[in-house]
Amino acid sequence: MTNAIRRFALWSENPKTKRKMVLGIICYCILFYFVGNWFQIPDFQSRQKTTGMAHHLAERFVYFQYYLGLFPVATLNEEPVLSKSGALEELEKDDGRLVMEVEHWSRLGEHARIWAYMPNAFLRGSPKKPSVRLFNTLVFLGALLTLYLGFHAAGQPLAGTLLTLMGGLTPYFVYEIFGRQNVFGLLGAGFFLLIGMHAKSIFIGISKWYWICITLIGAVVLGFLAEIRNETIILLASLLCLVFFAKHKHWLLRVGVALMAFLAVMGTRDGIKSWFDREFEEAEQVVARHKGNVYNGPRIEGHRFWHPVYCGLGDFDTQYGYRWDDQAAYRYAVPILNEKYKLNINYTGGFHTQNYYDADSMYYVKFDEIAEYEEVVKDKVIQDISNDPWWYVSILFKRILTILTYSLPFPLAGWLLLPAGYLMWKERRYEWMALLLASLALVATPLLIYSGDGATYNAMFAFISIAFLSHLLVGKCNR
């Protein structure tokens, strides 16, 4: 085993390997993009019972976005003419077929998701059969190239090669990136991108202005990804960690750059939100002018916090009635909403109320839009934790065990965190500790929200642990 790792290390250090790896990454992503539809492994390393993109709803908005730049506008016509002139004619029919919402896709934030369909539409020259797989592939390709080249430039070709191969060949990423119409692979891809960009600043050190430049670029990319999938915002903690551990930088400069990164992430998010606020206003005018169905209900910026926390406690709770099921939370909250807040919520089951914003009953009221609902589930969670803190501690402990056991790239790999972390501290490998700490930010979702149904595959610390232990083993053998 040791000799195999040593030979692999020598191969990774060969100057010719760099060109082969770059070409290999590009060819790999192109090949898997074209054969990605063959990958159907929903029970093995994939996110389950979590909607994510909701492709069957999202694809309805691609038509007018592609041809006319209108969002959110969709048509009830199942077979619109696929051309710009056809889209203009579809607007002019004035027969009530235009809508601004399909179920509850456009009102719950993360509006930049619609842009994920555009690369495929532009490549095909048509919004027919919309897909996010090309967007995922381009992001993943950029992440893997940045990861490999970044570590190579930092004098860590073994680690870069290992991380790139593990990331590219892990079944989770193969399925979520190339085989599925969803965006669950973006969190890992974003992490690979950030550590690749900052590898040289962590291991060697780079010039001040170059460091500031790559930090701000990473922050803007992160802000963009966060408006596609909200949970990627936890990468902000990873980015700040990488900034604070940059070599040969004064602590005041680190603080200043960290603040700049934070503002760049939030500024990018706010800028995208403002853009879509204007898009909504334009869509309202267009739909109203053509006698369509204007959505006049509230909109939120993204998923609420306390509802998923409430449902997530169902991963290990056996005492207080929590379940990873939206409907269970709704059934609990409705009596309180009606009795305490006098909201007259009509609920008979499903994922929304039987109350509507419009006279035609097209746009139902969703629980996410009811501010009092968030308060109700928040009060129950806090009360149960306050009354029985050891119950909550036991759930956190079980989640930690689950994270360690079911992490990528293979089962039980997460337990390598313990020896890797100890050896990093013992050997005073602070640069590796920085990478490990940055990776631990991705544990936030399975630790604080829910650890079942593939949620632990967000964690990236096992990748760093494996790369470090291999690096350390090769170093010991070469002494």
Q: Could you explain how this protein is built, in words?
A:
The protein contains 21 helices and two strands. The chain has 479 residues and is mainly alpha-helical. It has a domain of 82 residues. The protein has a two-stranded antiparallel sheet. The mean pLDDT is 93.
Give a brief rundown of this model.
This protein is mainly α and 479 residues long.
Overall outline: globular
Q: How much strand content do the residues show?
A: under 5%
Share of residues in helices = 55-70%
Number of strands: 2
**Major sheet characteristics:** 2 strands, antiparallel
What is the number of helical segments per DSSP (H or I, 4+ residues)? Answer: 21
The first-to-last residue Cα distance is: 17 Å
Explain the layout of strands and helices.
Elements (H helix, E strand, L loop, with lengths): L1 H12 L1 H21 L19 H4 L3 H7 L5 E2 L8 H9 L5 E2 L18 H7 L8 H21 L3 H13 L1 H8 L7 H18 L4 H19 L8 H10 L6 H39 L16 H7 L13 H15 L30 H17 L1 H17 L11 H11 L2 H11 L3 H5 L12 H17 L2
Antiparallel strand pairs: 1-2
Helix pairs in contact: 1-21, 2-7, 7-8, 7-10, 8-21, 10-11, 10-12, 10-19, 11-12, 11-13, 12-13, 12-19, 14-16, 15-16, 16-17, 18-21, 19-21
